[in-house]
Amino acid sequence: MPRHELYDDDGSTEREQCPRCGDSFLADHGDRQHCGKCGYTEWE
């Protein structure tokens, strides 16, 4: 998904940003959220 599709018209987004990197989004894999840049993972 292109980055511009992640943002609404007002600049907000529903995706969580990585708490470690701060400049990348966490990918939703159903049972976890994962940062592709640093490898940070949140298990649900």
UniProtKB/TrEMBL annotation:
Keywords: Metal-binding, Ribonucleoprotein, Ribosomal protein, Zinc, Zinc-finger
Ligand binding (Zn(2+)): 18, 21, 35, 38
Cofactor: Zn(2+)
Pfam families named in the record: Ribosomal_S27
InterPro entries per UniProt: Ribosomal_eS31, Ribosomal_eS31_arc, Ribosomal_zn-bd
GO biological process: translation
Domain Small ribosomal subunit protein eS31: 3-41
GO MF annotation terms: structural constituent of ribosome; zinc ion binding
HAMAP family from the UniProt entry: Ribosomal_eS31 (MF_00777)
Entry protein name: Small ribosomal subunit protein eS31
Species of the source: Haloterrigena turkmenica (strain ATCC 51198 / DSM 5511 / JCM 9101 / NCIMB 13204 / VKM B-1734 / 4k)
Recorded name of the encoding gene: rps27ae
